[in-house]
TrEMBL record:
<dbReference type="Pfam" id="PF00300">
    <property type="entry name" value="His_Phos_1"/>
</dbReference>
<dbReference type="InterPro" id="IPR029033">
    <property type="entry name" value="His_PPase_superfam"/>
</dbReference>
<protein>
    <submittedName>
        <fullName>Histidine phosphatase family protein</fullName>
    </submittedName>
</protein>
<dbReference type="InterPro" id="IPR050275">
    <property type="entry name" value="PGM_Phosphatase"/>
</dbReference>
<dbReference type="InterPro" id="IPR013078">
    <property type="entry name" value="His_Pase_superF_clade-1"/>
</dbReference>
<dbReference type="InterPro" id="IPR001345">
    <property type="entry name" value="PG/BPGM_mutase_AS"/>
</dbReference>
Length: 188
């Protein structure tokens, strides 16, 4: 019995609006998410889950409305926390690279890739087990999405993360907890 997960990376989000949790989508992000909704309507989604961050929820909201489904929000699907202080982009990119070399690496006050992956997988595995044979859309973020996919196939690493778009959609086909196939659906 095949279970399908649709990883929906959020649309473009303004960095100067709100904080990590409350940032919404830019006008381009909203327009792109309308296209995401149209792309996924034909897939027959049975369940929608999301990170608690506004931009992730907004990225699957149209699907939820179309299918008349509630979005189940899981705190453990939030994006990886990088550091206790605001860090500049160059330091952030360096930290992300180092995190893929050493999954336990973290900046002071931050979270490691290993810890982020473990908490996200603690949500995804039970969803896969409890909803076998269903089609599930997940409103997510680039890094946590990459780490969830990496859990099932180590080919999904830094290079994969670096080529992701906002938004992006990956269809993952499972047989029980075995990842059988990954297909990119978003065609920017």
């Amino acid at each position: 019995m095949k279970t399908i997960i649709y990883m929906v990376r959020h649309g473009e989000s303004p960095y100067n609006e709100g904080n990590e949790r409350t940032r919404g989508l830019t006008p381009k992000g909203k327009s792109d998410i309308e296209k995401v909704t149209k792309l996924l309507i034909g897939e027959g989604i049975d369940m929608i889950i999301s990170s608690p961050y506004t931009r992730a929820i907004l990225s699957v909201e149209g699907l939820a409305e179309h299918f008349k489904l509630d979005i189940k929000v899981f705190e453990d699907l939030r994006e990886r926390h990088f550091a206790s202080d605001i860090i500049e982009n160059a330091a952030l990119m360096s930290s992300i690279r180092e995190s893929f070399n050493d999954p336990n690496y973290t900046l002071p006050g931050g979270e490691s890739n290993a810890a982020c992956q473990q908490r996200a997988i603690s949500v995804l595995k039970p969803v896969l087990k409890e909803h076998r044979g269903k089609k599930i859309a997940i409103g997510t973020h680039g890094l946590v999405m990459t780490l969830m996919m990496n859990h099932f196939d180590p080919a999904f690493g830094l290079e994969f993360l670096n080529q992701l778009k906002k938004p992006d959609i990956y269809k993952m086909q499972f047989e029980d907890l075995e990842l059988e196939e990954v297909t990119r659906i978003w065609n920017d």
